[in-house]
Amino acid sequence: MYRVVETFVRNCLTCIRHQKTPIWDHPALTLPIRDVGDRVQIDLVFGLPSKESQEIARKYFEYISIFGSSKELLSDQEKEFLNKMMEKLIKLSGTERLNKAKMCKSSHWNPEQKFLLEYPICKVNLRQNSEDLTPSLEEQIKDRTRRGIKEYFVKWADYPVSENSWIRESDFVSMECIDQYLKSKIDQNEINTVRGARSLTHLRMISTFITNLLALGPFCTLNDHSPILSTSRLCSYNTFESNFHSELYNVLEKTQFYLNGYRFICTRDKISVRTYETFFGQRIHEKMVANENFLEMNV
Fold first, then answer.
1. In 123-182, which ranges are E strands?
2. 83, 105, 176, 292: most buried by Cβ count inside 10 Å?
3. Residue bearing the bigger pLDDT, 167 or 29
4. In what residue span(s) does the Chromo domain sit (predicted)?
5. Average pLDDT of the chain?
6. Contact assessment for residue 205 and residue 281, using Cβ atoms and an 8 Å cutoff
7. Considering the entire predicted model, what is its pTM?
8. Per-residue H/E/C for 15-31
9. Is 57's pLDDT higher than 80?
């Protein structure tokens, strides 16, 4: 009967799956001692002449001289074991110092004190709630499509800019942040489209104005020293019709000869032209006419 049960258990998949067998390399087990003297524990079990660091170091040196140095030295947190002299002696002998206990290599014997920041040797329980471990997103900067997979470049809250990273769309827990990013991207595209249309309208207005100016022909520049009659720069603004007509004399230009004869009084009108451009790009001319003092000329 025993053999029948043993044969059935060996061939039963359910029994094999749930069979409890010892695990030799389980992480919760303490590290085994492979040889004699690998780990040495030191403590005070009877009275000594003194508990000073020199006395403890001398006794430990005598032990090393007889049995040799060990790989590990286990002791408590007493001052006679934790001092500079013992630290130097342990360092020279090549021994690893262990303070306490079974689950952690370095821990305080008093649980009210603060534990050292080390990972325990034993296996700890897994966290059931991972929401507090997930960093929150501050903003999404840009997006891309890589090998057919949509990715977003995100800024993590309470982290520097150097920690920014690309995250796949499938890795997001909630799609709300993605919807907000896409909506802001659409709004920005609409704003850029309106700005581009305005810029194009301004360029068309400027080109139309330049075309009209070229169609009008050349302009003349007038100032206080502009001559009345200039053959090199003849312009409609520079030519004036006189109301005085003489049957005997026609004045065309000055000559280098001295002429003797009748005296005539001539007048000249001063015209000032001011040009400015409006907000919409339209150029406007203003003319101001003022009578100048009479000029006397001997002809």
1. 137-146, 149-156, 165-168
2. 105
3. 167
4. 135-193
5. 68
6. yes
7. 0.28
8. HHHCCCCCCCCCCCCCC
9. yes
